[in-house]
Amino acid sequence: MLKKDELKFSSKKFLISAAAATTIMATSALAHFQMLYTPNTALTKGQTIELREVFTHPFADEHTMDMGKQHDSKKLMPVEEFYVINKGKKKDLKSTLKDITFKGNHNSGHAYASQYKARRMGDHILILKPAPYYEAGEDIYIQQITKSIVNVAGTPTGWDEELGLKAEIVPLTKPYAIWEGGSFTGVVKSNGKVVPFAEIEVEYLNRDVDLKNNKMGSSYVQAPQDAFITMGIKANKDGEFTFSIPKAGFWGFCALGVGSDKEYKGKELSQDAVIWVEAKPMK
Protein backbone atom coordinates (compact mmCIF):
# COMPACT_ATOMS: atom_id res chain seq x y z
CA MET A 1 0.00 0.00 0.00
CA LEU A 2 1.37 3.45 -0.94
CA LYS A 3 2.36 5.80 1.85
CA LYS A 4 0.95 9.36 1.94
CA ASP A 5 4.08 10.96 0.40
CA GLU A 6 4.34 8.23 -2.23
CA LEU A 7 0.67 8.72 -3.07
CA LYS A 8 1.19 12.48 -3.56
CA PHE A 9 4.19 11.81 -5.82
CA SER A 10 2.30 9.16 -7.78
CA SER A 11 -0.69 11.50 -8.28
CA LYS A 12 1.60 14.35 -9.34
CA LYS A 13 3.41 12.04 -11.78
CA PHE A 14 0.07 10.94 -13.26
CA LEU A 15 -1.08 14.56 -13.73
CA ILE A 16 2.17 15.48 -15.47
CA SER A 17 1.89 12.43 -17.73
CA ALA A 18 -1.73 13.27 -18.55
CA ALA A 19 -0.82 16.88 -19.32
CA ALA A 20 2.04 15.75 -21.55
CA ALA A 21 -0.24 13.35 -23.39
CA THR A 22 -2.80 16.12 -23.88
CA THR A 23 -0.10 18.42 -25.25
CA ILE A 24 1.07 15.76 -27.69
CA MET A 25 -2.48 15.15 -28.89
CA ALA A 26 -3.14 18.88 -29.27
CA THR A 27 0.11 19.41 -31.19
CA SER A 28 -0.69 16.52 -33.51
CA ALA A 29 -4.22 17.85 -34.04
CA LEU A 30 -2.82 21.13 -35.37
CA ALA A 31 -1.72 19.46 -38.61
CA HIS A 32 -4.79 20.27 -40.69
CA PHE A 33 -4.51 19.82 -44.45
CA GLN A 34 -7.03 20.76 -47.10
CA MET A 35 -6.95 18.01 -49.68
CA LEU A 36 -7.61 18.62 -53.38
CA TYR A 37 -7.20 15.03 -54.43
CA THR A 38 -7.17 13.25 -57.76
CA PRO A 39 -5.48 9.85 -58.13
CA ASN A 40 -3.09 10.80 -60.96
CA THR A 41 -1.63 14.23 -61.75
CA ALA A 42 0.38 13.13 -64.82
CA LEU A 43 -2.11 12.06 -67.51
CA THR A 44 -0.99 10.58 -70.81
CA LYS A 45 -4.13 11.87 -72.56
CA GLY A 46 -7.12 14.09 -71.85
CA GLN A 47 -9.89 12.64 -69.70
CA THR A 48 -12.51 13.44 -67.10
CA ILE A 49 -10.97 13.16 -63.64
CA GLU A 50 -12.48 12.61 -60.21
CA LEU A 51 -11.67 15.13 -57.47
CA ARG A 52 -12.24 15.01 -53.70
CA GLU A 53 -12.07 18.10 -51.53
CA VAL A 54 -11.59 16.95 -47.92
CA PHE A 55 -10.26 18.73 -44.81
CA THR A 56 -8.35 16.12 -42.83
CA HIS A 57 -5.08 14.85 -41.35
CA PRO A 58 -3.58 12.94 -44.30
CA PHE A 59 -0.96 10.92 -42.44
CA ALA A 60 -2.61 9.86 -39.18
CA ASP A 61 -6.24 10.32 -40.32
CA GLU A 62 -7.06 11.41 -36.77
CA HIS A 63 -10.07 13.56 -37.57
CA THR A 64 -12.07 14.53 -40.64
CA MET A 65 -13.24 18.13 -40.30
CA ASP A 66 -16.55 19.54 -41.51
CA MET A 67 -15.56 21.96 -44.26
CA GLY A 68 -17.08 25.39 -43.67
CA LYS A 69 -17.74 24.90 -39.93
CA GLN A 70 -18.51 28.20 -38.11
CA HIS A 71 -18.35 29.16 -34.44
CA ASP A 72 -21.63 31.07 -34.41
CA SER A 73 -23.87 28.81 -36.46
CA LYS A 74 -24.57 25.17 -37.17
CA LYS A 75 -24.83 26.07 -40.85
CA LEU A 76 -21.75 25.19 -42.91
CA MET A 77 -20.42 27.95 -45.14
CA PRO A 78 -19.89 27.01 -48.81
CA VAL A 79 -16.60 27.07 -50.70
CA GLU A 80 -15.60 30.63 -51.58
CA GLU A 81 -13.70 29.88 -54.79
CA PHE A 82 -12.92 26.83 -56.92
CA TYR A 83 -11.48 27.26 -60.39
CA VAL A 84 -8.91 26.02 -62.89
CA ILE A 85 -6.39 27.81 -65.10
CA ASN A 86 -5.20 26.24 -68.35
CA LYS A 87 -3.07 28.18 -70.85
CA GLY A 88 -4.02 31.46 -69.22
CA LYS A 89 -7.77 30.81 -69.33
CA LYS A 90 -9.66 30.66 -66.04
CA LYS A 91 -12.77 28.53 -65.59
CA ASP A 92 -15.04 28.60 -62.55
CA LEU A 93 -15.70 25.11 -61.13
CA LYS A 94 -17.88 25.90 -58.09
CA SER A 95 -20.98 24.51 -59.80
CA THR A 96 -19.27 21.09 -60.07
CA LEU A 97 -18.98 20.67 -56.28
CA LYS A 98 -21.31 18.14 -54.70
CA ASP A 99 -21.77 17.80 -50.93
CA ILE A 100 -20.65 14.44 -49.58
CA THR A 101 -19.91 12.80 -46.26
CA PHE A 102 -16.33 11.59 -46.28
CA LYS A 103 -15.44 8.77 -43.89
CA GLY A 104 -12.07 8.67 -42.18
CA ASN A 105 -10.88 5.85 -39.95
CA HIS A 106 -12.05 7.70 -36.82
CA ASN A 107 -15.03 9.80 -37.92
CA SER A 108 -16.87 11.28 -40.88
CA GLY A 109 -17.00 14.90 -42.03
CA HIS A 110 -18.60 17.20 -44.57
CA ALA A 111 -16.60 17.34 -47.80
CA TYR A 112 -17.08 17.68 -51.55
CA ALA A 113 -16.77 15.58 -54.70
CA SER A 114 -16.39 16.95 -58.20
CA GLN A 115 -15.37 16.04 -61.73
CA TYR A 116 -13.24 18.00 -64.16
CA LYS A 117 -12.72 17.50 -67.88
CA ALA A 118 -8.94 17.74 -68.24
CA ARG A 119 -9.08 17.45 -72.02
CA ARG A 120 -6.63 20.04 -73.33
CA MET A 121 -2.89 19.39 -73.37
CA GLY A 122 -0.76 21.16 -70.79
CA ASP A 123 -1.03 22.18 -67.16
CA HIS A 124 -4.36 22.48 -65.39
CA ILE A 125 -3.86 24.55 -62.23
CA LEU A 126 -6.67 23.81 -59.77
CA ILE A 127 -7.28 26.32 -56.97
CA LEU A 128 -9.60 25.75 -54.01
CA LYS A 129 -10.41 28.49 -51.49
CA PRO A 130 -12.71 27.01 -48.85
CA ALA A 131 -14.64 29.05 -46.31
CA PRO A 132 -12.68 29.56 -43.07
CA TYR A 133 -13.06 26.62 -40.67
CA TYR A 134 -13.54 27.21 -36.94
CA GLU A 135 -11.04 25.25 -34.84
CA ALA A 136 -12.65 25.15 -31.39
CA GLY A 137 -9.53 23.80 -29.66
CA GLU A 138 -7.64 26.99 -30.49
CA ASP A 139 -10.60 29.38 -30.86
CA ILE A 140 -9.34 30.46 -34.28
CA TYR A 141 -10.34 30.11 -37.92
CA ILE A 142 -8.27 28.30 -40.55
CA GLN A 143 -8.47 28.93 -44.28
CA GLN A 144 -6.17 26.95 -46.56
CA ILE A 145 -5.91 28.23 -50.12
CA THR A 146 -5.00 25.02 -51.91
CA LYS A 147 -3.30 24.33 -55.23
CA SER A 148 -2.98 21.11 -57.22
CA ILE A 149 -1.67 20.83 -60.77
CA VAL A 150 -2.67 18.17 -63.28
CA ASN A 151 -0.74 17.80 -66.53
CA VAL A 152 -1.98 16.27 -69.78
CA ALA A 153 0.45 14.67 -72.28
CA GLY A 154 3.65 16.03 -70.68
CA THR A 155 3.46 19.49 -72.26
CA PRO A 156 4.31 22.24 -69.72
CA THR A 157 2.10 25.34 -70.05
CA GLY A 158 2.31 27.27 -66.79
CA TRP A 159 2.92 24.95 -63.83
CA ASP A 160 5.22 27.60 -62.30
CA GLU A 161 2.80 30.49 -62.85
CA GLU A 162 2.42 32.92 -59.96
CA LEU A 163 -1.26 33.70 -59.39
CA GLY A 164 -0.96 36.52 -56.87
CA LEU A 165 -3.04 34.69 -54.26
CA LYS A 166 -3.34 35.95 -50.70
CA ALA A 167 -1.47 32.80 -49.64
CA GLU A 168 0.43 30.83 -52.25
CA ILE A 169 3.24 28.33 -52.77
CA VAL A 170 4.70 28.86 -56.23
CA PRO A 171 6.39 25.64 -57.42
CA LEU A 172 9.94 25.77 -58.73
CA THR A 173 9.78 22.04 -59.47
CA LYS A 174 7.10 20.48 -61.65
CA PRO A 175 4.79 19.09 -58.95
CA TYR A 176 3.59 16.23 -61.18
CA ALA A 177 7.00 15.13 -62.52
CA ILE A 178 8.98 13.98 -59.50
CA TRP A 179 10.55 10.58 -59.09
CA GLU A 180 10.49 8.84 -55.71
CA GLY A 181 13.68 9.98 -53.98
CA GLY A 182 13.66 13.30 -55.81
CA SER A 183 12.92 16.70 -54.29
CA PHE A 184 10.42 19.54 -54.45
CA THR A 185 11.29 23.23 -54.30
CA GLY A 186 8.81 26.06 -53.88
CA VAL A 187 8.63 29.70 -52.84
CA VAL A 188 6.09 31.05 -50.35
CA LYS A 189 4.31 34.24 -51.36
CA SER A 190 1.43 36.46 -50.28
CA ASN A 191 -0.14 38.82 -52.84
CA GLY A 192 2.95 38.37 -55.01
CA LYS A 193 5.46 39.18 -52.26
CA VAL A 194 7.82 36.58 -50.81
CA VAL A 195 7.32 35.51 -47.20
CA PRO A 196 10.75 35.08 -45.59
CA PHE A 197 11.32 32.29 -43.08
CA ALA A 198 7.77 30.94 -43.47
CA GLU A 199 6.92 27.96 -41.29
CA ILE A 200 5.90 24.98 -43.42
CA GLU A 201 4.28 21.72 -42.39
CA VAL A 202 4.77 18.64 -44.57
CA GLU A 203 2.65 15.50 -44.55
CA TYR A 204 2.45 12.33 -46.60
CA LEU A 205 -0.96 11.08 -47.75
CA ASN A 206 -0.59 7.82 -45.90
CA ARG A 207 -3.83 6.25 -47.10
CA ASP A 208 -5.67 4.93 -50.10
CA VAL A 209 -8.54 7.23 -51.03
CA ASP A 210 -11.60 5.19 -51.98
CA LEU A 211 -13.33 7.42 -54.53
CA LYS A 212 -16.29 5.10 -54.99
CA ASN A 213 -17.22 4.97 -51.31
CA ASN A 214 -15.73 8.34 -50.26
CA LYS A 215 -13.55 7.02 -47.48
CA MET A 216 -9.96 6.56 -46.35
CA GLY A 217 -8.27 3.18 -46.50
CA SER A 218 -5.65 1.62 -44.26
CA SER A 219 -2.26 3.24 -43.68
CA TYR A 220 0.87 2.50 -45.73
CA VAL A 221 3.57 3.20 -43.15
CA GLN A 222 3.93 3.72 -39.41
CA ALA A 223 5.72 6.78 -38.01
CA PRO A 224 8.51 5.99 -35.53
CA GLN A 225 7.62 9.11 -33.52
CA ASP A 226 5.13 12.01 -33.69
CA ALA A 227 7.66 14.35 -35.31
CA PHE A 228 7.50 12.15 -38.42
CA ILE A 229 3.73 12.54 -38.80
CA THR A 230 3.86 16.27 -39.44
CA MET A 231 7.36 17.34 -40.45
CA GLY A 232 8.34 20.97 -39.97
CA ILE A 233 10.63 22.94 -42.24
CA LYS A 234 11.26 26.66 -42.80
CA ALA A 235 11.72 28.75 -45.89
CA ASN A 236 14.85 30.85 -46.26
CA LYS A 237 15.02 34.65 -46.37
CA ASP A 238 13.78 34.57 -49.98
CA GLY A 239 10.77 32.42 -49.11
CA GLU A 240 12.25 29.34 -50.81
CA PHE A 241 12.36 25.81 -49.44
CA THR A 242 13.36 22.36 -50.70
CA PHE A 243 12.18 18.99 -49.42
CA SER A 244 13.55 15.59 -50.41
CA ILE A 245 10.74 13.11 -51.06
CA PRO A 246 11.54 9.64 -49.69
CA LYS A 247 8.48 7.74 -50.90
CA ALA A 248 6.18 7.68 -53.92
CA GLY A 249 2.71 9.12 -53.47
CA PHE A 250 1.17 12.46 -52.58
CA TRP A 251 2.84 15.02 -50.34
CA GLY A 252 1.21 18.14 -48.93
CA PHE A 253 3.05 21.36 -48.08
CA CYS A 254 1.31 23.94 -45.89
CA ALA A 255 2.80 27.40 -45.22
CA LEU A 256 1.16 28.52 -41.99
CA GLY A 257 -0.45 31.92 -41.51
CA VAL A 258 1.25 33.55 -44.51
CA GLY A 259 -1.92 35.06 -45.99
CA SER A 260 -2.77 38.75 -45.79
CA ASP A 261 -6.15 38.17 -44.08
CA LYS A 262 -5.64 37.84 -40.32
CA GLU A 263 -9.18 38.03 -38.91
CA TYR A 264 -12.58 36.48 -39.61
CA LYS A 265 -15.80 37.07 -37.67
CA GLY A 266 -13.88 38.82 -34.91
CA LYS A 267 -11.47 35.93 -34.37
CA GLU A 268 -7.90 35.22 -35.41
CA LEU A 269 -7.56 33.74 -38.90
CA SER A 270 -4.68 31.55 -40.01
CA GLN A 271 -4.73 31.93 -43.78
CA ASP A 272 -2.43 29.18 -45.08
CA ALA A 273 -1.01 28.23 -48.47
CA VAL A 274 -1.20 24.55 -49.45
CA ILE A 275 0.20 22.74 -52.48
CA TRP A 276 0.04 19.03 -53.29
CA VAL A 277 2.76 17.25 -55.26
CA GLU A 278 2.96 13.67 -56.52
CA ALA A 279 6.08 11.50 -56.67
CA LYS A 280 6.06 8.46 -58.95
CA PRO A 281 7.78 5.12 -58.24
CA MET A 282 10.77 4.30 -60.46
CA LYS A 283 10.08 0.82 -61.81
Describe the structure.
The protein has about 280 residues and is mainly β. It has one domain. The chain is built from one helix and 22 strands. It has one helix spanning about 5-30; strands spanning about 35, 40-45, 45-55, 80-85, 90, 100-105, 110-120, 120-130, 135, 140-150, 170, 180, 185-190, 195, 200-205, 205-210, 215-220, 230-235, 240-245, 250-255, 265, 265-280. The strands form four sheets. Strands 2, 4, 5, 8, 9, 10, 12, 15, 18, 20, 21 and 22 form a twelve-stranded mixed sheet that branches. Strands 1-3-7-6 form a four-stranded antiparallel sheet, with no helix packed on it. Strands 11, 13, 14 and 19 form a four-stranded antiparallel sheet that branches. The longest helix has 26 residues, at about 5-30. Residues about 1-30 have low confidence and may be disordered. Keywords: Signal. This is Nickel transporter. Pfam families: DUF4198.
